[in-house]
Amino acid sequence: MNYKIVIEETTLGYSAHSPDVDGCVATGSTREGVIEAIRELIDDHLEWLGEHTPRGGRVRGGVLEMRT
């Protein structure tokens, strides 16, 4: 499955969340670190829920990075 991931640069590093998976937010000091963290968090969250299909639309592509 592919899930949209939104990455934002913060004053302390990066934060990431998925609009397709409620409640998953990760932080990290590097972009690569936050991507790894959000992937693991989404996998763990979906396993816990017993849910294996996205609620939102399927997204093909990569990461959307937003600068604040």
UniProtKB/TrEMBL annotation:
Native source species: Thioalkalivibrio denitrificans
Protein name per UniProt: HicB family protein
Domain of life: Bacteria
Family matches, as InterPro entries: TA_system_antitoxin (IPR051404), TTHA1013/TTHA0281-like (IPR035069)
